Amino acid sequence: MPSKIGKPNKVLIQVLMLVATTLIIAGSTSSEYEDAQNLHAFLMTNYSRILTPRFNQSESVDVILSLFLNSVIDFHPVSGVMTFSAAFIIKWKDEIIKKRWRNSGFIDINVTKIAMHNVWLPKIYIRNIANIGSVYQFLSTLDSEMSFVTYKHTGEAIMTCLAVLQTTCQTDVTFYPIDEHTCDITMITINDYQAINLQTADEDVVNDLTYQNSEWTITSVVTASCSDKFSEVNFAVNLTRKPVFFVTNLVFPIMIITVVNGLSFFVPIESGERLSFGTSLLLMFIVFLTTVIDVLPSTDNELSYFNIFVFIELNYSCFIVFGIISTLFLYHRSTTKKVPKFLQRITLYVLKQHKTLPVNIDTISNMNTPNTNCTKLMELHDQGGDNVYSENQNEVVNDEVLKPRVNWRDVSIALDKVLKSITTFFTVCLLLLFILFHIWIHIRTKG
């Protein structure tokens, strides 16, 4: 019988303990909320948002700035505008809040939050901003009203501002597409330049949480300067272009077109396809330039070496087409027109260097040699007179008889050999330059 009565008593005791615990928690929660509300009211009594939070108004407030770069969204070297998302952390000490908190009696509360519209805030601006100068940017009025400043009982105030900003940069596209740019985020004060002393404890704004850009490698340098009437904090974001895409899609195709263009002089003149081959490559080069003109830097501050390279390649292609037209014109020119003497001497010199000289028909007939063409190229430097002719033939054919006669076709052949040598030399130099350029980029990216 007693056991049956004891079991309900235990259940009743557990229910009473649960109710008591709930009341205690509710009472303590209500007490903490009321204490925090009373603390806010006590701290904000006769608080001025205009005056600096120092008892001695002649002393400046040390404001510590920190910047956490979230990502570089976009950067235009032509316009010099960098778009980035970042978080600004602003810290300062409020002597008024500290003293009032100590005298309020709510010393068991260590941290509280106060709306930003009710307290003093340092006026901080970005000097080289491209859109809105202030760091306090909000999406809407509601977002502004819900922003707050976190205070500690020691008077330390902390506020975080998230924003997407645009800043202007000094660009230098001289070494495009391996160019580097420095974009400064310069923080200054305007109205309270004597009352605020800007400082920073940052050494770098790029960390593991920063999203890397697909086009740029991001590094940073942080500096701070202060004088009697002016203080600023500068966050320098260094952007180095990743050149693999541009080298693959811009530099390499241009060099391939240039190398193939130099092969035009290896197409035989008699085939009649040399001019069409050269003009087709020139048109291909021009069409290719129209497709990449949007990615080329159009700024006139500094002309990039890549623009100079493209201009040289375009003139080189035009030079090849002009050379092809010249050789074809001379090759098919009438043989009745006499070649000027100075042009004969130049032609003979070029053909002599290539060990091929034109020989007159009459000379060949006198030597009892079969005649198949109007002009025959004979390798005189590889053949000695004693090995080819007999002593009697050498007596008949003297120097005057062996003097070659140059026609316009010989001039065309000589010009063709000169242009072929020029294009071969240019192609070899271009290939060596590309190899050295590739090695330099590899060392630069790995370093």
Automatic annotation (TrEMBL):
It is a multi-pass membrane protein. The chain crosses the membrane at residues 244-269, 275-296, 308-331, 422-441. The keyword NADP does not apply. GO terms for cellular component: membrane. GO terms for molecular function: extracellular ligand-gated monoatomic ion channel activity; transmembrane signaling receptor activity. The keyword Nucleotide-binding does not apply. PANTHER family: NEUROTRANSMITTER GATED ION CHANNEL. This is CHRNN.
